[in-house]
Design a protein that fits this description.
Elements (H helix, E strand, L loop, with lengths): L5 E2 L6 E5 L2 E4 H21 L2 H4 L7 H26 L2 H6 L14 H19 L3 H25 L16 E2 L11 H22 L8 H18 L17 H23 L10
Parallel strand pairs: 1-4
Antiparallel strand pairs: 2-3
Length: about 280
């Protein structure tokens, strides 16, 4: 059934080129993800019924927070990749740490960078850490979806070997002549579309009224979907399989299941805050 295999479509790595300036698909995924997430966050903050009253974060504050979370994603994502995925290489070539255009970002590192940005910004501005975390996580799947699509466009992070009879098995340019799962698309669907849909439904049902519920749900569901996706994704060549056939992505996602579950339980037990009573 080899005649059914799909040849990977060859995309140009540069999405937009204006004179000497070039924007690669990978960078464009981050730019669009942050921009669309910002617009969505603003729309959620404008709807008081979702919060049970005025949103605990102003539009001006969310506008200012965009820079903070962007830095958190970039610094955290790169730091995570260096520490978790390729430390020996970067110890020998420290200058390569700053070559972001060559790729190499870790979701788990970027998430931790966002956590730092949320906590720091919330304390600095006297707003709820949990509510800011909720709104950040509520929009995050948009960026995850777009970045996973750019992983596919770049022909990177391809999947494990697949049965040649699988209708959508692909031959990737850098993956040899082995038919593989297009795991980037699996992850885009689970970590992006599925997670966004679940959180959007929860928000519509009033989850933002319970601070920490969307945050915990994001962490838990992402951890689950990432572990499932790792079963189809080829591990990084410099790491391979770790203990018991686990991958680094799986190991980093296991703590997310615990933290997410705890935050959900606490948010449910805490209940929704009571609306302020007017003084007559």
């Amino acid at each position: 059934m080899l005649f059914l295999l799909i040849d990977f479509p060859k995309f140009k790595p540069i999405a937009l080129e204006i004179g000497p300036f070039a924007i690669r698909w990978y960078a464009l995924g981050y730019i669009c993800g942050i921009t669309f997430g910002w617009f969505y966050a603003r729309s959620l903050l404008k709807k008081q019924r979702l919060w049970g009253g005025p949103a605990p974060i102003s539009l001006v504050q969310i506008d200012d927070f965009i820079l903070w979370v962007t830095l958190g994603i970039i610094v955290g994502g790169r730091t995570g990749y260096v520490l978790f995925y390729n430390l020996p290489f970067f110890v020998e070539h420290p200058a390569a740490i700053f070559k972001l255009w060559e790729g190499g970002m870790s979701f788990h590192g970027g998430f931790l960078g966002c956590v730092v940005a949320v906590m720091w910004f919330a304390r600095k501005n006297g707003i709820s850490i949990l509510s800011l975390g909720d709104i950040t996580c509520g929009v995050a799947p948009i960026g995850i979806f777009l970045v996973r699509l750019t992983n596919f466009i770049n022909g990177e992070l391809w999947g494990r070997a697949a049965d040649p009879s699988l209708p959508w098995a692909m031959i990737f340019p850098t993956g040899g002549d082995v038919p593989r799962h297009p795991s980037q698309l699996y992850e885009a669907g689970m970590e992006g579309l599925l997670l966004f849909t679940v959180l959007a439904v929860m928000i519509r049902l009033g989850a933002l009224k319970r601070p920490g519920l969307i945050l915990g749900s994001f962490i838990l569901i992402y951890g689950l979907t990432r572990i499932v996706g790792e079963h189809f994704r080829e591990p990084d060549v410099q790491l391979g399989y770790l203990w018991g056939g686990l991958t680094m992505g799986m190991l980093l996602s296991i703590p997310m299941l615990i933290v997410g579950g705890v935050l959900i339980v606490l948010a449910i037990r805490r209940g929704a805050p009571k609306p302020a009573t007017a003084i007559h």
